[in-house]
User: Which sequence fits this backbone?
């Protein structure tokens, strides 16, 4: 038996997340304060009080979700299991949890990442959408026809696509004609994990090169390889790669099961990853950390 801590990505946020912990737990409060200091901004006030439009800006929501997850972990005082993983930006949180990055460096990297993603595509020109009810191989075939990108292979029959707005809209219509139960845009301010994020990938390569990353004290299961990584150079390459390529979450969870992982604990706002796990495999028991 072995376990894994997993950390959520964008979309798990809500105004007020972490506020009770901030008010009642010194370890959690120190995390939010460190993030505020690193960014030179009272991000905690936006997290706790909104407005929601400001919280959901990509440059704010990415460090906000990380801060909430790490605050929960530190407040819990529980020891790391054998592995960590994260969905998209959650990989940065996982690396922070495993001691590879400081809280401050993680916040600064995610601020760079959010700004770079926003700046890579003019507002209104990109789109991210979810396709429900089609197998991943069918979605890939459709995307090949329209020149769209698969952004997230989340679980069986749930695939996220991303790219230029007109291409994603065309892909959604084609998916519905091929039997998709639903095809709808997601409320993200930028298209994610797609080729048009190449300028953002270049920015992240530079930012990561300037950060002192240590080898994580437990391996991180990568969105790129679906396998455990500990080498800093490989991890940095994988973080750059994920900017323009899809998150292989379904495959990652299946590989976790093959590796003998039986317990998954989701740490952060929401319970998206817990729900996905139950749809992917019955070999892993998933739960959300409750404090």
Assistant:
């Amino acid at each position: 038996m072995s376990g894994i801590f997993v950390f959520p990505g964008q979309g798990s946020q809500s105004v007020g997340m972490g506020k009770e912990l901030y008010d009642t737990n010194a370890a959690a409060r120190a995390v939010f304060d460190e993030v505020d200091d690193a960014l030179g901004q009272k991000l905690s006030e936006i997290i706790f009080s909104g407005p929601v439009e400001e919280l959901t800006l990509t440059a704010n929501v990415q460090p906000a979700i990380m801060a909430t997850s790490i605050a929960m972990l530190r407040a819990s005082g529980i020891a790391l299991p054998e592995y960590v993983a994260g969905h998209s930006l959650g990989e940065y949180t996982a690396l922070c949890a495993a001691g590879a990055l400081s809280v401050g460096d993680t916040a600064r990297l995610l601020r760079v990442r959010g700004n770079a993603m926003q700046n890579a595509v003019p507002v209104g020109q990109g789109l991210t959408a979810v396709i429900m009810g089609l197998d991943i191989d069918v979605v890939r075939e459709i995307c090949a026809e329209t020149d769209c990108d698969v952004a997230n292979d989340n679980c069986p029959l749930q695939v996220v696509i991303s790219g230029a707005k007109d291409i994603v809209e065309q892909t959604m219509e084609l998916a519905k004609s091929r039997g998709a139960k639903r095809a709808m845009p997601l409320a993200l301010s930028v298209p994610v994990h797609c080729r048009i994020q190449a300028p953002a990938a270049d920015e992240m390569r530079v930012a990561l090169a300037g950060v002192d990353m240590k080898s994580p004290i437990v391996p991180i299961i990568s969105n790129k390889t679906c396998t455990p990584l500990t080498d800093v150079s490989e991890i940095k390459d994988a973080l750059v790669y994920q900017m323009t390529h899809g998150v292989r979450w379904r495959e990652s969870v299946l590989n976790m099961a093959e590796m003998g992982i039986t317990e998954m604990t989701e740490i952060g706002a929401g319970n998206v990853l817990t729900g996905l796990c139950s749809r992917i495999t019955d070999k892993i028991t998933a739960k959300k950390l409750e404090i």
The chain has two domains: 2-121+195-288, 126-185.
